[in-house]
Amino acid sequence: MLEAEQVEYGEESINWSAVSFPNNRDILQVIGSAKGGILRILNEEGFTNGNDEGFLRKLVALDSPCLVTKESFDKKMGDARVDKKHKVSSFKWFCIKHFAGGVVYNVDKFVEKNKD
């Protein structure tokens, strides 16, 4: 969004100072892709009477650089933004990594809650 605004300012010869910001395209793609992002997978699991395990299994298959699961933890363990305590946690989870760090989501009743 900021990128588009900065381009527009340049096209309109508006005097402004460039703002640097991280590219979050991968994060937006893994969350909202119509071809198989997190939200689409979550909705599909709800529509087909799926469950949390199926949801998580499909997330593992995404193999996105900004998505970490217990199954992909070893491959991405060098990334300091992923808290190592989750590798040994008893709950099923996934983590979305963004410029400010990782946000961990417990998938327990995730599909059910999405139906509300």
Q: Helices and strands in order, then pairings?
A:
Blueprint: H1 2-11, H2 25-32, H3 38-47, H4 52-62, E1 67-69, H5 73-76, E2 93-98, E3 101-106, H6 110-114
Antiparallel strand pairs: 1-2, 2-3
Order of helices and strands: HHHHEHEEH
CATH topology: Methane Monooxygenase Hydroxylase, Chain G, domain 1
Helical region count? Answer: 6
The rounded distance between the terminal residues' Cα atoms is 30 Å
Task: Write down how many β-strands occur, each being a DSSP E stretch of 2 or more residues.
Answer: 3
Strand order of the largest sheet: 1-2-3
What CATH architecture would you give? Answer: Up-down Bundle
Classify the beta-strand content into a percent band: 5-15%
Which shape, going by the Cα principal axes? elongated
Poorly predicted sequence stretches spanning 5 or more consecutive residues: none
- Largest sheet composition: 3 strands, antiparallel
> What is the residue-mean pLDDT, rounded to a whole number?
84
Q: Percent of residues in helical segments?
A: 40-55%
Provide an overview of this structure.
This protein has 116 residues and is an alpha+beta fold. The chain has helices spanning 2-11, 25-32, 38-47, 52-62, 73-76, 110-114; strands at residues 67-69, 93-98, 101-106. It has a single domain, classed as Methane Monooxygenase Hydroxylase, Chain G, domain 1 (Up-down Bundle). A three-stranded antiparallel sheet has the order 1-2-3, covered by helices on one side. Strand 2 (93-98) and strand 3 (101-106) form a beta hairpin. Helix 3 (38-47) runs antiparallel to helix 4 (52-62).
